[in-house]
Amino acid sequence: MRFQVPQFIEVEDKIFGPFTFKQFVYLAGGIGMCVLLFIFLPKFVAILLALPIAAFSGALAFYKYNDKPFINLVESFFHYSLTNKLYVWRKEERAPTPTGQGSLKPIEQVYVPKLSESKLKELTWSLDIKESANPVTKDEENEI
C-alpha cells in the first residue's frame, strides 16, 4: 500500500482569494473597526484613530519579524509586560566602613601534613596496582 505524504505542511492554504484565513480575519477586523470609527466620529478624529488601527491590522496580516508572524512579537511583548520579573542579582552600593586596628582577626595557620617517602611510595604502589586500564611496564616499575 502506498500513501501520499503531504508536502509543504508549513504553508497555510489560501482560502479567501490571495489571503489565508488568519490574514482575512486580521484585515476584516481592522477594516471593521475603521468603518465604525468613521460612522461614529468626526472625519478628522476618525482618520487620526483609523491610521494606527489600519497599520496594526496590516502588520498582523503581512509583516514577518525574523521569519515569524508579527502576532508572535505582540504576544511576547504583552507576556513580558504583564508578568512579574525576577531579578536574581542587583548590585548595591555600599559605603566602606572604617575598621580599627583592634578589630582585625589574626590570620589562622592551616596545618598541611607532609607525606613521608614511604607513605608516598605506598600510595603510588596502591594506585598502580588498582589501575588496570594503563598497566605499568617493568622499566617504569624499576624507576619508582
Describe this structure in words.
With 144 residues, this protein is mainly α. The protein has five helices and four strands. The protein has a domain at 14-82. Strand 1 and strand 2 form a beta hairpin. It has helices at 21-40, 43-62, 70-82, 117-130, 138-143; strands at residues 14-16, 19-20, 64-65, 68-69.
Draw up the topology in text.
Layout: E1 14-16, E2 19-20, H1 21-40, H2 43-62, E3 64-65, E4 68-69, H3 70-82, H4 117-130, H5 138-143
Antiparallel strand pairs: 1-2, 3-4
Helix pairs in contact: 1-2
Q: Uncertain runs with pLDDT below 50, 5 residues or more?
A: none
Note the gap between the termini. 73 Å
Shape, per Cα inertia axes? elongated
Evaluate the radius of gyration.
Answer: 38 Å
Strand content: 5-15%
Strand order of the largest sheet: 1-2
User: Which range best describes the helical content: under 10%, 10-25%, 25-40%, 40-55%, 55-70% or over 70%?
Assistant: 40-55%
SSE topology string = EEHHEEHHH
Q: Number of helical runs?
A: 5
Q: Which structural class should the secondary elements be placed in?
A: mainly alpha
